[in-house]
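Task 17 of the worksheet. Students: predict the tertiary structure of the chain below and write it out as structure tokens. Keep your answer in the requested format; marks are given for formatting as well as content.
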Amino acid sequence: MLHPQQFEVDEAWIAFKLNDAPIQTDLDGDFNVVALMDAASGFLMGTESVPARAKELSKSGAKRLLKLGESHHQRFPQTLFIPSEESAQALAREAQRLGIDVVRVGGDQLAAFLSEVREAFKSGFGGLRVQ
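Model answer:
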């Protein structure tokens, strides 16, 4: 299992779906939230909303999310981890285009990173219907 202590800040980032179930809105429909986190610090560098009917981020959404990450220290990581259970082809392609190694790992390998942030998100937004 991977652990935050294995990394330096900006050495590796993790892109993952933050919510368990789509967030329901009356105005814009249901959506999911894709987050980008620094593996060493656990800092959430940005999020991007994705319509629930879409299986993954669009190319422009992938670019925006990676640009948000870069804006914090004006650099990209060496590695981007993406849970193998999640569809993220556009994000993987964009990361590779930027020279970032993309590594697909099972969600269980990322539990030390993701469980707390997902639980915090769930307690704040889980099951919420927004007007």
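Marker's comment: The chain has a mean pLDDT of 89. The first helix runs from residue 59 to 73.
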